[in-house]
Write a sequence for this structure.
């Protein structure tokens, strides 16, 4: 038995220091050797882990971005990544918009006036039954959205997607707030991908797509305009 | 919310390579673990990376989980906390702020009194930490949630480096006495 661990109080303290990662690498090595052969000491460590873990009890649970689970599965089992949905609708629609000279939309300046957004988009259904205006500030990574026409369907959510050219791959930006106006915080890596891309809305189960890819119909789409 | 027994079952199935068990565990626990990573790292992009790595670790280490009659959440939280703290420490060593600067930044956080008041609404560990000298209680929280080491604690609480270990251990023993064994 190691000379420094004869005293019970000392064991209690060392077990706590092990859990808090306060030991030197040498001490840590000795503790790990001992854990393998000394069930009573193992129990002290378990008890500390359990009690100290309750320091996280008051930390609120926060939904991670929808796409993260897919990224984890991709890392673990790259072969079974869910098939990427092709957005056949969007090049057609965008092409139409560009041809009609409508790529630049008149966007309410009062809505944009809050900061100095870098991008704006008018995400609209083809028949105008749903229109969401969005503006994005790259520095604060705040995507402000305002639903100016239409409604979120009962018992469903609208999920907002960043559609990236040239392959039309999609990544979730989160569920559209049910209120008419709201702010979505965009992750740092996605915040750099707004240029020359588009935003889209799909109808999803409450809480958003369970797969990390759109599962319901794409109901509205709009190109991002650099400001 | 899945029951603790269900979570234990998911871990056991993950150990056998059941991919659907990973999906179930993710659905049941990812928000809690993301909250913890975000609290420790205070940076959303880094917490997102950390959460991915945490679930990769949970998948690979599921076979090492031993049921010990305590909550399986403890194991998940411990893996998440340790991983987030490792990232935080790596970030700190890159930034390598001088000690006096560290102490100054930290002054902006909860005072020990504020921390002690906040703790009173928590479960038993909060009550027990409340019976400690506030500085020691605060130090234990900082070790767990912010990965502070003895050198940082010595600077923060103005305790000589050669006695800081004795100083904190007194608090840890008192805490164990209160929590029971």
């Amino acid at each position: 038995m190691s000379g420094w661990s004869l005293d019970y109080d000392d064991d209690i303290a060392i077990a706590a220091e092990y859990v808090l990662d306060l030991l030197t690498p040498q001490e840590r090595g000795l503790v790990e050797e001992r854990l393998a052969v000394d069930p009573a000491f193992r129990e002290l460590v378990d008890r500390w882990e359990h009690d100290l873990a309750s320091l996280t009890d008051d930390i609120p649970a926060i939904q991670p971005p929808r796409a993260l689970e897919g990224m984890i599965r991709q890392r673990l089992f790259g072969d079974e990544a869910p098939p990427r949905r092709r957005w056949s609708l969007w090049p057609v629609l965008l092409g139409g918009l560009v041809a009609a000279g409508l790529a630049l939309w008149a966007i309410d300046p009062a809505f944009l006036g809050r900061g100095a957004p870098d991008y704006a988009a008018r995400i609209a259904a083809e028949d105008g039954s749903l229109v969401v205006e969005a503006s994005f500030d790259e520095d604060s990574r705040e995507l402000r959205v305002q639903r100016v026409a239409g409604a979120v369907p009962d018992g469903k959510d609208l999920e907002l997607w960043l559609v990236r050219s040239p392959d039309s791959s999609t990544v979730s930006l989160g569920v559209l707030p049910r209120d008419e106006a709201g702010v979505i915080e965009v992750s740092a890596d996605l915040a750099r991908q707004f240029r020359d891309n588009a935003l889209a809305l799909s109808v999803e189960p409450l809480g958003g797509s369970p797969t990390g890819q759109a599962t319901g119909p794409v109901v509205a789409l709009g190109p991002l305009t650099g400001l | 919310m899945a029951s603790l027994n269900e979570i234990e079952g998911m871990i056991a199935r993950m150990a056998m390579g059941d991919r659907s068990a990973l999906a179930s565990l993710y659905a049941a626990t990812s928000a809690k673990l993301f909250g913890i990573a975000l609290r420790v790292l205070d940076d959303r992009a880094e917490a997102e990376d950390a959460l991915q790595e945490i679930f990769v670790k949970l998948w690979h280490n599921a076979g090492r989980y031993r049921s010990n009659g305590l909550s399986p959440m403890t194991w998940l939280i411990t893996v998440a906390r340790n991983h987030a703290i490792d990232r935080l420490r790596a970030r700190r060593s890159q930034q390598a702020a001088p000690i006096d600067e560290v102490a100054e930044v930290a002054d902006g956080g909860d005072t020990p009194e504020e921390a002690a008041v906040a703790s009173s609404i928590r479960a038993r560990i909060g009550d027990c930490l409340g019976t400690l000298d506030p500085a020691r209680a605060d130090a234990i929280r900082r070790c767990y949630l912010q990965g502070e080491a003895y050198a940082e604690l010595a600077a923060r609480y103005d305790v000589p480096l050669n006695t800081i270990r004795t100083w904190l251990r007194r608090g840890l023993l008192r805490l164990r006495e209160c929590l029971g064994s």
User: Anything to note?
Assistant: The CA atoms of residues 122 and 133 of chain A lie 5 Å apart.
